[in-house]
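Project standup — Tuesday

K.O.: blocked on the structure for the chain from last sprint. Re-posting the sequence here as requested.
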Amino acid sequence: MKNYKLKITYTFLAIIGLAVSSCTKDFTEVNTDPIGKSTTSANQLLAPALVGVLNTNMVRNWNFNNQLMQVTVEINDSEGRVFRYDVRRTLADYTWNNWYLYLTDLKDIYNIASKPESLNKSYQGISLVAQTWVYQLLTDTYGDIPFSQANMGKEGNVQPAFDRQKDIYTAMFAQLEQANQLLKEGTPIVATSDPVFQGDVSKWRRFCNSLYLRLLLRVSAKSEVSTSVIAKIKQIVDTNPAEYPIMQDNTHTAKILWNGTNSSTAVYSSPFMVNIRAADFRGIPICDFFLSKLVSWGDPRMNGSLGTGNVNRFCIDQAPNGGFVGVPSGYAPGSGVTVLSHFNSDADSNKPTLQTDRFTGIIMNTAEVDFILAEAAAKGWISGPTEKYYYKGMVDAINYWLPNYISTPTDSRFIDYITAADLEWDPTLPLDNTTLGNTSQLEMIHIQKYYALFLVDMQQWFEFRRTGHPILPKGPGLVNNQKMPARLNYPLVTQSTNPTSYNNAIAIQGPDDINTLMWWQKP
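H.V.: unblocked you, prediction finished:
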């Protein structure tokens, strides 16, 4: 796939707020390249925008989220290593530039679908859901960002104001409420325009309300909104679930299935294949934190007999001397660590690899929703029992990678697994404890949620910042006073192209620093 990239000029214009439309290429007859035409349609813009955002998410998941959250760890003693919390300012540019670029097309979809001659409520609703998905990524990464004035270059606003995060969340809630009603109509869309649900509008509605739950939970600790937020969670789950359908099984998971080949030019090629060299994919070892728990539990996703060619479903290779051995994150420079267990790459021609795996394009999965509900039940916000959601989340997370391996939480396979791994729900534990070596109900939920969020953009990082879970060990080689970065700084280009808005933002939010807490992180 060509990744639908625009020329650098277009990217710069998108950064400063000029609305431009990204191009499509070689999609299907229905997705004819709109460039050069005086008009285009909503269905022509949808797939390129969704693929473009997901491509960005997967790249940053691989080289940023996974390093911070101890999924992988580099063998490198030089400066600027993310796994040491040494974050270079240039890392901020890539996601900011791409997310705002594709927001242009997502907003255009809504505008086109709102015209009398091309009115379509489903495309309107899908646009609002997708915009909210991207704005959540932006605000949870940077804090206060351009929102109400973003992508308004055609209207002459090339220096958009930064909105407060609290106001952005309020607006995102409103967008999802509107989208839920628009999608309720079930207006048909072009199935081939939709790489996520293949035209099933009812699943877009489930994704809409599941995303709503994610956002509600994220700000639920803020005293100024907690009462209304908790009430809304209860309304969605307990009071009026028919009006707010959510993801309930893996057929509802929002994902883009890649083509499963090692082509870097074919339609729907995995971003891991397109953007990461095989040597780099296999050259970064798995972190001990991520790997050791899977091994000690005897997790089915690590069982070679359940994978392909006796390779486990996560496509992790054994260490040179045998067995699955991870590298501790935050090791001291000069420790002489070496690559042990690692993900197989496309160069390992006889082994399956996540580099080309069809199932890595996850936008939001059902297991995440289960664990959202488990946390809400543990806190008494919705009806329980908590273990119902906890066990369902584990089953859905395993079944995503091993379809139909476990039928229900009462399946003997599952019962044997959690018994042997000592993962049965324990209601006698305290609700919360973030001290290393201790456990709690929230730690039990969030360690499983951590694995459910494997490869899902930067949600592991966002959730750790919100909850302190899962409890990560701190190696001696960490910098930044061993503090997990709280955000990314604003891109350097923003300081020069939009200085007034930039200065206003940092005057309100705080210094443009990786340790400055954003609104929902502050006490």
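K.O.: great, moving the ticket to review. The two ends are 45 Å apart (CA to CA). The first helix runs from residue 8 to 15.
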